Amino acid sequence: MNRPHFADIARELTEAIASGRYPVGSVLPTELELRDQYQTSRHTVRAALHELQQMGLVSRRKNAGTRVESARPRNEFRPTLASVDDLVQFGSEHLRLVQSVEEIVAEGRLAKTLKCTDGARWLRISSLRIDGGKDSPPVGWTDVYIDPDYIDVAEAAREEPGTLISSLIEARHGRSIAEIQQGVQAVLVSQEMAERLRVEKGTAALEIVRRYLDSSGATFEISISVHPAERFSVAMRLKRSDV
């Protein structure tokens, strides 16, 4: 049996708290009890509890356990990405609504962001990311840039909204992810983007640029995503080098 992803455990615990199974003021089962309950590792359980803490549902204190502080999340959307696996999980759980597909010429600021020459041609797939129904406020807006010859991928992106575009490229063209280079910066939402994301102009947001490289080190996809700050977060794990 496959071990559950930490996001699955976090979701079940969130539902249990919301239903009153674990009322405000109560203490959740210990890490060891949850480990045995879900037949997973203690590390996975800790990651799930960290998600609940990030949402404001629980507090954690040494020798005091995990206490339920609220029955409702602090904000409705807060997916966290810390690995390629998390990115795939995000893709499967958040509906992609393709808004447009067009061939464009990259120049000026866009060419600099994509790290390509002025005049380079790309196929751009622009989408909204939705958590829940189509009427839910968007988690973000993403422009994906791929080889213009991959028009079949653009068509598949509409038909398979839960599959990452990089996975579609791998399935159809055999180019798989060996590395993702990611840059994150704070931005203020423009008027055009504010209308797309249903927020006020000037709202704080995260702009994330990801470059997808294959085993040869060649870039086969670039994405630029804008996420309202209160609907998204990015996590990373830092480990001490053995050297």
TrEMBL record:
<feature type="domain" description="HTH gntR-type">
    <location>
        <begin position="3"/>
        <end position="71"/>
    </location>
</feature>
<dbReference type="InterPro" id="IPR028978">
    <property type="entry name" value="Chorismate_lyase_/UTRA_dom_sf"/>
</dbReference>
<dbReference type="Pfam" id="PF07702">
    <property type="entry name" value="UTRA"/>
</dbReference>
<dbReference type="Pfam" id="PF00392">
    <property type="entry name" value="GntR"/>
</dbReference>
<dbReference type="GO" id="GO:0003700">
    <property type="term" value="F:DNA-binding transcription factor activity"/>
</dbReference>
<dbReference type="InterPro" id="IPR050679">
    <property type="entry name" value="Bact_HTH_transcr_reg"/>
</dbReference>
<dbReference type="InterPro" id="IPR036388">
    <property type="entry name" value="WH-like_DNA-bd_sf"/>
</dbReference>
<dbReference type="InterPro" id="IPR036390">
    <property type="entry name" value="WH_DNA-bd_sf"/>
</dbReference>
<dbReference type="InterPro" id="IPR011663">
    <property type="entry name" value="UTRA"/>
</dbReference>
<dbReference type="InterPro" id="IPR000524">
    <property type="entry name" value="Tscrpt_reg_HTH_GntR"/>
</dbReference>
<dbReference type="GO" id="GO:0003677">
    <property type="term" value="F:DNA binding"/>
</dbReference>
<keyword id="KW-0238">DNA-binding</keyword>
<dbReference type="GO" id="GO:0045892">
    <property type="term" value="P:negative regulation of DNA-templated transcription"/>
</dbReference>
<keyword id="KW-0805">Transcription regulation</keyword>
<keyword id="KW-0804">Transcription</keyword>
<protein>
    <submittedName>
        <fullName>GntR family transcriptional regulator</fullName>
    </submittedName>
</protein>
